[in-house]
Amino acid sequence: MRNATEEIRIGELAIRFLLEGKDTGGALAMFEFEVPSGGKVPAAHSHDAYEETIYGIQGVMTFTVDGIREEIHPGEVLCVRRGAVHRFDNLHGETARCLAVLTPGILGPDFFREVASVLKASTGGPPNMAAIGDVMRRHGLTPAQ
Q: Does residue 118 contact residue 127 with C-beta atoms inside 8 Å?
Protein backbone atom coordinates (compact mmCIF):
# COMPACT_ATOMS: atom_id res chain seq x y z
CA MET A 1 0.00 0.00 0.00
CA ARG A 2 1.38 3.39 -1.00
CA ASN A 3 0.58 6.65 0.79
CA ALA A 4 0.61 9.83 -1.28
CA THR A 5 2.54 12.05 1.10
CA GLU A 6 4.37 14.30 -1.35
CA GLU A 7 2.39 17.20 -2.74
CA ILE A 8 3.97 18.81 -5.79
CA ARG A 9 2.83 22.39 -6.38
CA ILE A 10 2.95 24.08 -9.77
CA GLY A 11 1.51 27.52 -9.23
CA GLU A 12 -2.07 26.91 -8.08
CA LEU A 13 -2.05 23.24 -9.11
CA ALA A 14 -1.41 20.57 -6.44
CA ILE A 15 -0.46 17.02 -7.53
CA ARG A 16 -0.21 13.88 -5.37
CA PHE A 17 0.93 10.63 -7.01
CA LEU A 18 -0.89 7.55 -5.75
CA LEU A 19 0.83 5.04 -8.06
CA GLU A 20 3.81 5.35 -10.34
CA GLY A 21 4.62 3.16 -13.31
CA LYS A 22 7.34 1.48 -11.24
CA ASP A 23 4.63 0.37 -8.78
CA THR A 24 2.53 -1.30 -11.50
CA GLY A 25 5.10 -2.85 -13.82
CA GLY A 26 4.49 0.09 -16.16
CA ALA A 27 0.78 -0.69 -16.59
CA LEU A 28 -0.48 2.62 -15.19
CA ALA A 29 0.28 5.69 -13.13
CA MET A 30 -2.29 7.46 -10.99
CA PHE A 31 -2.34 10.89 -9.39
CA GLU A 32 -4.82 13.21 -7.80
CA PHE A 33 -4.76 16.87 -8.74
CA GLU A 34 -6.49 19.90 -7.31
CA VAL A 35 -7.15 23.29 -8.91
CA PRO A 36 -8.64 26.20 -6.95
CA SER A 37 -11.49 28.31 -8.29
CA GLY A 38 -10.24 30.37 -11.23
CA GLY A 39 -7.14 28.20 -11.66
CA LYS A 40 -5.94 27.52 -15.19
CA VAL A 41 -3.43 25.26 -16.84
CA PRO A 42 -2.74 27.21 -20.02
CA ALA A 43 -0.15 24.84 -21.54
CA ALA A 44 -2.27 22.87 -24.01
CA HIS A 45 -0.49 19.67 -24.97
CA SER A 46 -0.85 16.13 -26.25
CA HIS A 47 0.86 12.83 -25.54
CA ASP A 48 1.28 10.08 -28.11
CA ALA A 49 2.38 7.23 -25.82
CA TYR A 50 -0.48 7.03 -23.29
CA GLU A 51 -4.12 7.72 -22.59
CA GLU A 52 -5.15 9.93 -19.69
CA THR A 53 -8.45 9.10 -17.99
CA ILE A 54 -9.87 11.76 -15.67
CA TYR A 55 -12.38 11.02 -12.90
CA GLY A 56 -14.09 13.96 -11.16
CA ILE A 57 -13.97 13.87 -7.35
CA GLN A 58 -14.95 17.38 -6.22
CA GLY A 59 -16.07 20.59 -7.91
CA VAL A 60 -16.19 21.00 -11.67
CA MET A 61 -13.15 20.89 -13.95
CA THR A 62 -13.49 22.18 -17.50
CA PHE A 63 -11.40 20.28 -20.03
CA THR A 64 -10.90 21.40 -23.61
CA VAL A 65 -10.01 18.40 -25.79
CA ASP A 66 -9.36 18.96 -29.50
CA GLY A 67 -11.28 22.26 -29.23
CA ILE A 68 -14.35 20.75 -27.53
CA ARG A 69 -15.10 21.95 -24.01
CA GLU A 70 -16.41 19.40 -21.49
CA GLU A 71 -17.20 19.87 -17.81
CA ILE A 72 -16.26 17.01 -15.49
CA HIS A 73 -18.41 16.82 -12.36
CA PRO A 74 -17.92 14.43 -9.41
CA GLY A 75 -18.47 10.85 -10.54
CA GLU A 76 -17.96 11.66 -14.24
CA VAL A 77 -15.16 10.36 -16.41
CA LEU A 78 -13.29 11.64 -19.48
CA CYS A 79 -10.75 9.71 -21.53
CA VAL A 80 -8.17 11.87 -23.31
CA ARG A 81 -6.94 9.68 -26.14
CA ARG A 82 -3.39 9.60 -27.40
CA GLY A 83 -2.60 12.58 -29.61
CA ALA A 84 -5.58 14.70 -28.47
CA VAL A 85 -4.63 18.30 -27.69
CA HIS A 86 -6.04 19.22 -24.29
CA ARG A 87 -5.93 21.62 -21.36
CA PHE A 88 -8.08 22.33 -18.31
CA ASP A 89 -9.42 25.14 -16.16
CA ASN A 90 -11.50 25.54 -13.04
CA LEU A 91 -14.09 28.10 -14.12
CA HIS A 92 -16.34 27.55 -11.11
CA GLY A 93 -16.61 28.81 -7.53
CA GLU A 94 -15.10 25.89 -5.61
CA THR A 95 -11.85 23.96 -5.69
CA ALA A 96 -11.94 21.09 -8.19
CA ARG A 97 -10.23 17.78 -7.52
CA CYS A 98 -9.78 14.95 -10.03
CA LEU A 99 -8.06 11.61 -10.31
CA ALA A 100 -5.89 11.01 -13.38
CA VAL A 101 -5.03 7.50 -14.57
CA LEU A 102 -2.33 7.20 -17.24
CA THR A 103 -2.15 4.00 -19.28
CA PRO A 104 0.55 2.88 -19.65
CA GLY A 105 2.24 4.47 -16.63
CA ILE A 106 4.92 6.44 -18.43
CA LEU A 107 4.62 9.88 -16.81
CA GLY A 108 5.84 10.23 -13.23
CA PRO A 109 6.30 12.89 -10.57
CA ASP A 110 9.68 13.99 -11.97
CA PHE A 111 7.84 15.78 -14.80
CA PHE A 112 5.86 17.90 -12.33
CA ARG A 113 8.91 18.53 -10.13
CA GLU A 114 10.90 19.78 -13.14
CA VAL A 115 8.11 22.10 -14.30
CA ALA A 116 7.80 23.44 -10.74
CA SER A 117 11.55 24.10 -10.71
CA VAL A 118 11.41 26.04 -13.99
CA LEU A 119 8.52 28.15 -12.67
CA LYS A 120 10.28 28.78 -9.37
CA ALA A 121 13.37 30.01 -11.25
CA SER A 122 11.23 32.66 -12.99
CA THR A 123 10.13 34.33 -9.75
CA GLY A 124 9.11 37.89 -10.47
CA GLY A 125 9.04 37.41 -14.22
CA PRO A 126 7.26 35.44 -16.90
CA PRO A 127 7.97 31.70 -17.01
CA ASN A 128 10.57 30.41 -19.44
CA MET A 129 8.19 28.72 -21.88
CA ALA A 130 11.08 27.28 -23.93
CA ALA A 131 12.41 25.52 -20.82
CA ILE A 132 8.92 24.27 -19.95
CA GLY A 133 8.56 22.98 -23.52
CA ASP A 134 11.88 21.14 -23.17
CA VAL A 135 10.70 19.48 -19.93
CA MET A 136 7.40 18.52 -21.58
CA ARG A 137 9.11 16.91 -24.58
CA ARG A 138 11.61 15.09 -22.37
CA HIS A 139 8.67 13.46 -20.54
CA GLY A 140 6.61 12.55 -23.62
CA LEU A 141 4.29 15.57 -23.85
CA THR A 142 4.04 17.69 -26.98
CA PRO A 143 3.27 21.39 -26.40
CA ALA A 144 0.45 22.62 -28.65
CA GLN A 145 1.26 25.43 -31.04
A: yes
